[in-house]
Design brief:
Number of domains: 2
Distance between the termini: 45 Å
Order of helices and strands: HHHEEHHHHHHHHHHHHHHH
Strand order of the largest sheet: 1-2
Radius of gyration: 24 Å
Shape: globular
CATH class of the largest domain: Mainly Alpha
Strand content: under 5%
CATH architecture of the largest domain: Up-down Bundle
Amino acid sequence: MVKQRIRKEPVDRYIIDPMSRFLNNSTMSGIVLFSAALLAIILSNSPWSDAFHHIWETKISIGFSDWQLSKTFHHWINDGLMAVFFFVVGLELKREIISGELSNPRNAILPIAAAIGGMIVPALIYLLFNPSGEVQGGWGTPMATDIAFALGILYLLGDKVPVSLKIFLTALAIADDLGAVLVIAFFYTSDINMISLLTGAVFLFVLFVANRIGVRSTIFYGIIGIGGLWLAFLMSGVHATIAAVLAAFTIPARVKYSETAFDRKLTSLMDQFRRADPNNSPTVTSEQLHILEKIRYISKNALTPLQRLEHAMHPLVAFVIMPLFALANAGITLSGDSITNLTSSVTLGVFFGLVLGKVIGVVGFVSVVTRLKLASLPKDFTRQHLLGVGFLAGIGFTMSLFISQLAFANKVFVEEAKMGILLASLFAGLVGYFIIKTAKQVK
């Protein structure tokens, strides 16, 4: 039997396939994010600095007639596009809780303990430097871990990293994200408009009911989630990103076709396709078309809407939204005051909160849990690996920058926090990389 090769057009070979490899490379998102942050710093200290900062203050309005929502480009990124980021975070959280590392209480103890320690200790260290006044409100800034950067560094290490280490850091970062979402919800909200909040609750109820009765249309969830829930939360004073996480938890996580049913149905359809009379032309016959449509239908329904959305939206978040957020928020204008900022209480609190607090919190809480025999480290996971993960957890970046924008009204404090975040993330990433790289592998 002669094997027929799949025909690849030039657009496949030179555009689509390279782009697909790029988007599916685990290290690339971290590199793009870092490049965007570096570009923001360069442009902020270039002759085009004023124009660069002015871009983010451009007013953008949506609506019609007397009903309009008008915000700056910067606000649309932080309240709108970052809601998409948090939506994907919510999808990851739900998947992990249902069938991932957080689904088994025994397996979840270690990363959850590490996440709790990695949030409490950094906040306490920050408060040691900033015990009172407006600066005290920034305690949430050093609590978060940037999963894209942290995992990007792990993947750069290749085979030197045990699989259990990648799983542990992923689960830690996801549990950490859940903690960050709760912190934003309870501590970084403005005055609450109860009518808007109750309206949002109605839309949330509609989404939950739709899930229960079997609605699987992602378009439906998008319209109600964005046009209803997100907009209501945006007007309520509760940060709109919380709406995105709540909406994600309403997305169905059940398949219509089980693995067995899918296998049986697909085999039957493939047999029908083989028996169908061939067309011997570039197009397919009407019979083949109907069979292929059925294959597409059952393939779609063998996946959960949750996983379809997460898979489809990840490239958008990793390669568009997060780099754009970094461009809009990571820019620091270096001047004579920058040296003074290095010694400010906010910069020191954020820096040592991320660098020391994360390591002490992650390593300390995991050590307590293992000594109490509530859980144990995987066999290929050494104490040096744990120390390295503690430092990688100190890469705050995206979430820390986001929380700093909510924590401070004074732009001077925001700039000081940025300085601490960027220096800590760079230092923690480099130290974590070399600690894990030099760790002995356990056979």
